[in-house]
Design brief:
Elements lengths: L1 H32 L1
């Protein structure tokens, strides 16, 4: 049971980290255009 909870927590942490990385990459791309 606890292992499954850890799995889903890790998955959402990865998803959040990926979203932040994507946002930073988007901002970086916008800065490169200027």
């Amino acid at each position: 049971m606890g292992f499954a909870i850890g799995e889903s927590l890790g998955a959402s942490a990865l998803r959040i980290a990926g979203g932040i990385f994507t946002k930073i990459a988007d901002i970086g791309a916008d800065l490169m255009k200027i």
